Amino acid sequence: MLKQVLTQLENELSISQTQILTIAALFQAHMEQGLSGRVSSLKMFPSYLPAPSGSETGTFLAFDFGGSNLRAAVVKLKGEGNYQEQYRLARPLSEPESGRDYRSSTVTAEELFDFLAGIIQEVLNNSPENLKLSSSTSELISLGFAFSFPYRQQKLEEGVLLNWNKEVKTSGVVGEDVGKLLSAALMRRGLGNVVRPAAIINDTVANFLTAAYQDPTVDIASIVGTGHNTCYLEPKAPGFPTPIIINTESGNFSAAPETTYDQILDQLSDNPGEQKFEKKLSGKYLGELFRQIVLDFSQQGLLGRLNNPPAPADWNQPYSISGKDLALICLNEDSHSRLVPKEMDFALKYIINLLIKRSSRLVAASLIGIVRHLDPHLNHHHSVAIDGSMYKGMPGYAQELTTALSEALESKASQVTVKLSAGGSLTGAAIAAALAKQIK
């Protein structure tokens, strides 16, 4: 009976070669609808940045605000794809010692951005090149701001927050331009004539900039981790005379096939109907899909009790099983024993492998959609830089992605190279600041 149900699950989760190509064609269609201003599940946001040449040089400030930790650094771009972080500082948004949690709705925008400005000031004060003292009002230090929350952008240094996520609820920021909020905080710190927030980007664009700075053949970059998104270099973006990086917001793609488990997860999520592609493939959601499938099988009597006495809280608590837990189960790490009774080991690993394979094939389909948009007959070579915990840390994931691309592209597979990004939102932010000076 269990074998039959596993076979049925495999049929539901499998993405065939034909389906990869169908999804790719739909992704391409949604891209082109979004680019032309028509209704689309892909937002196709312009980043207002070109690709770097690799020859950009100079010393810049970089700030990364993308989750529970804030990071800042002085980054020296040396040209020829070389760079060096000269001073780096990380601070958590929550400070148990002081009792202050900057994620809380009781914290104001001014308090949060004063905290950010304080981190920037500390980096400046400890910079090996003593940037603050060597600067003048005629030559402000350019700062690149990697801000990985949903925002609307109409110019490079602007980012109007649409909504918080990742457990951040700070009041007074939604609907405001985070670039202006940071500038105002820097003014209050006496740094208004020292630092200029020059560019706001998200982590996916930062990944592109870092990878393309080192390898000019990179024209696509993707994050496959806790979340998911992809950007690429668009040669003919409406309203732009030269090629610019487009942030597809691919996690919101809506035309991939769904299972009942996907539908339940979406309905019970905090954003039903949104990010439906991301919910099928990213680390945040794969653990939850796995938990739902295993609970369903257990309730059908196919796996017996998950534990004896009855199932532990881990299995009954939504989102209690992470992508990292799935990796540990695959790797036979001792720490997964709290989750997996030994007699269920084979079945649970089988389910995980099905989810990993589907995830990688969905990502492959989206990448093919982008490549086909850029180069319908695949006459040219394309390099894809990928970063993120799923791609880097999930056993077998990278190989499954490569296999899916080879299978779908057949004789043209050699035209698409996928590589692990050297990554780094801070470096990408610094490169954005350098590009901002060039196009000012």
From TrEMBL:
<dbReference type="InterPro" id="IPR001312">
    <property type="entry name" value="Hexokinase"/>
</dbReference>
<keyword id="KW-0324">Glycolysis</keyword>
<comment type="pathway">
    <text>Carbohydrate degradation.</text>
</comment>
<protein>
    <submittedName>
        <fullName>Hexokinase</fullName>
    </submittedName>
</protein>
<feature type="domain" description="Hexokinase N-terminal">
    <location>
        <begin position="6"/>
        <end position="213"/>
    </location>
</feature>
<feature type="domain" description="Hexokinase C-terminal">
    <location>
        <begin position="220"/>
        <end position="435"/>
    </location>
</feature>
<dbReference type="Pfam" id="PF03727">
    <property type="entry name" value="Hexokinase_2"/>
</dbReference>
<comment type="pathway">
    <text>Carbohydrate metabolism.</text>
</comment>
<keyword id="KW-0067">ATP-binding</keyword>
<dbReference type="Pfam" id="PF00349">
    <property type="entry name" value="Hexokinase_1"/>
</dbReference>
<comment type="similarity">
    <text>Belongs to the hexokinase family.</text>
</comment>
<dbReference type="InterPro" id="IPR043129">
    <property type="entry name" value="ATPase_NBD"/>
</dbReference>
<keyword id="KW-0808">Transferase</keyword>
<keyword id="KW-0418">Kinase</keyword>
<dbReference type="InterPro" id="IPR022672">
    <property type="entry name" value="Hexokinase_N"/>
</dbReference>
<dbReference type="InterPro" id="IPR022673">
    <property type="entry name" value="Hexokinase_C"/>
</dbReference>
<keyword id="KW-0547">Nucleotide-binding</keyword>
